[in-house]
Amino acid sequence: MIDKTDIGIEIINALYDGDLDRVDEIISGGIRSLDEITPKENWSWLHKALLGFGHTKMPSKSVKYLIDKNIAINAQDVYGMTPLHYAMRASNADAAIVLLEAGADPNIPNRDGLRPLSMVGYTKERLDVLELMLQKGGNVHHIMGDGTGRTILESREPDESSPQWKIDIYEMMKRYA
């Protein structure tokens, strides 16, 4: 008997390998569907693909493939996390860019008030991600979800000992404030 979990792992592995023909082949077998949402976590295949386990990052072509299969890019899981939250947490700048270009919203808060825009430190070496978030409507005036009452911009204000990447992030955010 074919195990659905094993098939799911095979799909994720093919996505990580960028072997989209293999994904199509597996799906055509009819045991699993790209429309599936996990009942407990409320994860789509896009969520699962971007969870960020290990050191390997989901290739952007696999993210685009899933988006092209009409998987909702702003869907929130049980934690309120969107695929963009997971791409940011996994430091997957290329995936974040694909999501943003497809219409992912950088302002959606998770259940703790964390927004993808406030997670830019995970991609600090890629200011193009921050710039695209801001161009796509990222609002630096949203209140952080950390209970301090500070805005995202205020939370990024550097001090005299801040590394250059923190200064660069703050300066870019100020330009869009």
Structure classification? mainly alpha
Number of strands: 0
CATH architecture verdict? Alpha Horseshoe
Distance between the termini: 57 Å
Q: Report the average pLDDT across residues.
A: 96
CATH class: Mainly Alpha
Count of all domains = 1
Share of helical residues: 40-55%
- Within the CATH hierarchy, at the fold level, what is the topology? Serine Threonine Protein Phosphatase 5, Tetratricopeptide repeat
**Strand percentage:** under 5%
**Rg:** 17 Å
Overall geometric form: elongated
**Largest sheet composition:** none
The low-confidence parts are none
Q: How does the SSE layout of this entry go?
A:
Layout: H1 4-17, H2 20-28, H3 45-49, H4 60-68, H5 83-89, H6 93-101, H7 127-135, H8 152-155, H9 164-175
Helix pairs in contact: 1-2, 4-6, 5-6, 6-7, 7-9
Q: Would you write up a description of this structure?
A:
This protein is mainly α and 177 residues long. It has one domain: Alpha Horseshoe (Serine Threonine Protein Phosphatase 5, Tetratricopeptide repeat), CATH 1.25.40. The chain has nine helices and no strands. Helix 5 runs antiparallel to helix 6, helix 6 packs parallel to helix 7 and helix 7 packs parallel to helix 9. The chain is elongated, with a radius of gyration of 17 Å. The mean pLDDT is 96.
Tag the structure with descriptive keywords.
44% helix, Ankyrin_rpt-contain_sf, Serine Threonine Protein Phosphatase 5, Tetratricopeptide repeat, mainly alpha, repeat, 177 residues
Outline of the structure:
Helix content is 44%, strand content 0%.
